[in-house]
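Structure, all two chains, one model.
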Amino acid sequence: MLRRIVLAILLASAVVPTLPRLLTEVRYAHELRALTPEQRRERMMGAFYVSTRRLDRDLPGEEPLALIIRQPSDLDSAIFFNYYVYPRRTRVYRTLGEYAMDRSPSRPRTIIAIGGDARRTSYEELRAERITDSVALAALPAEARQSFLIPMAVSLDGPPPDTYTTEATLFADREARVTITFYPSRATSELTLRAGETRRIRDLVYEQFRRMDAGWAEVRATAPIRASFFFVNRGAGVFAPLPPFTPARRFTLEGGGKLWLVNPSDRQVVARVNGEARPLAPRVLISMPAARSVEADAPIYAFLSERQPDGNTRFVWP
Amino acid sequence: MALILTALLFPLAGRALRARTWAEAYLLGVGAVGTALFLLPFEVAVAVIVLLAIAGARASRPYVPAGRDARRLAGGTPARPNAPLIVMLIPLLLMAYIAAITPLSDFDGRAFWLLKAKGFADERQVDGPFFHGEKVYDPRNHYPLLMPLNAGLLMIATGHADDAEVRWLYLGVFVAMLFVIRRRADPWLAAIVAWLPQFAAETDGGALSAYSDVAVAAFVACAVFEEESPLRFGAWLAFLVLTKNEGLPIAIVLLALGAWRFRKRASISAVPAVIATAALIAWRHRIPPGDEENLAALLRTLPEHLDRLWPAITIFAAHLVGFAKWGLFWIAVALTARRRMPIAVMLAIIATYLAAYTVTTWIQRDLINSSADRLLMHLIGPACLAMACHPEQRRL
């Protein structure tokens, strides 16, 4: 008799927590029964599953995919993406830098960003999405100009965590239409500054020209503007100013690292670097090992850059 | 299709291996099919499995045990449906309805176990590109493969690498285990286990998931109930080794039980377990590891981590009284268990789990809270045996 009582209590203690949960699941199953298996999964698993299946349908079956996660907790989503698109080949990258550093021939070209959903994207877009704040100062020079040249404009990644961008801050007292031309590609971009507006640009080359590249820039405005530009290593959280330059024929530079030469003209120029002739194509920016003396047959611009231990870059301007 | 295949293939294969009941046949079939797929090339394994199924189907009548075992089984078989059977069937019918309609949604089942099943279904080998990390990221690459291989075979047979095809496999293991407990321990205990939330209603690890814990629980139960055949006892241990990482230490504990139970014949029990262990080790040497912990190496650091043992005990013990997962089950076990053998088995298995919790490099509390209830599932067979009043089990 005692045993029966014990068993009855034990059974009740199991039924009480289980029955409501089972009935909830049964009711849910009953709701799902009219749907197809695919529709049931979509309803249960939501946006991530829907986006995963859509990508799997839209992409060629043999196309390998790079799954780049936004944060460590997204690894689970990447694993479930694997699960639902198998046997498609995928490779999980925990950071964008890990993808950038993967030089293997089997690195997938098609990138899927894994976060709240799964979506096809490009390396450049994903990188731009992750640049959400400014690193450099918003300080503006007192002098306003209508036209000037910036010696370097980059949107490039080095070995992780180095991510290089050019940050800009622009201000106009009165409305100004600003045209930025990026060389040597000659891509142009326009923006309008309202009177009294301060515009901050976190990644000048990508935001204005939709590319990751290195070059220099020419800025022209319909009214004087005040502007500052910085060479930023976002991974290290450091920056160095990029002052506007004035072309000249002769430079003397003291320092190490790299020598950079800018030809701002539309014709070929011959520069003599420590006496050695170096032809410069029109509008080009090139680099070479540091040199002290530079002379040219037409106005150019020369400067040095040297990476510092903290990830920053020290520039030597003429 | 998947339901029919599951309901026929595994019981018939098990029946050919001289299982004494259909429930035991199902579990023996699950173990044997998975083991064959792991040990043999795919085509050979399939041929063996087909031959087993044909042999099981051609058997004119079920294997009839002889002697004392026959008397015990006859005494434990109810003549017609009765109260404990009805009580046991209610949650099983509800779970069958859920499994038939609701897509699989558990974590490990999809992320680890059935991902392997899909890999196997695609490549039909256990050391192909999938297991070398050339196709996808397989986070637990060294996990044993017995259940994924069974699931993969069903995917191959049905032509769909879809988890809907394998849900009956996992639910079937639970059902078979309940019938084994019902027959070998106590019908009311089987009914109670059928209602335990951790088995019946838990998304992660329960019988509606694709985790391998219910299979471990079933194989442990079959092993502790096995008194007749040391070879079959050894087969259960081999299946344990090939089902989950925990299977190996459990098998070692149960080998001690086998030595006590089978005396001079105990060495026969060790043969299947040793073969399975050797095959598992050899397979792991052929493929890269995943990101699982190397517990074998970590256990050597146990003396340095003894200060973490007491927290492991207290956190683990809290799960024994977790009403939402277990009701009063473990409290009842603590109060009513009388048989020394199953109690010793349970304590030895718990000791190995506590040792693992002590040396883990995970956050200890997180690991225990996420796994303790699933590990307790493994003890369900010994627990039922410890509480059973079945007259034929008194000598245990």
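The two ends of chain A are 101 Å apart (CA to CA).
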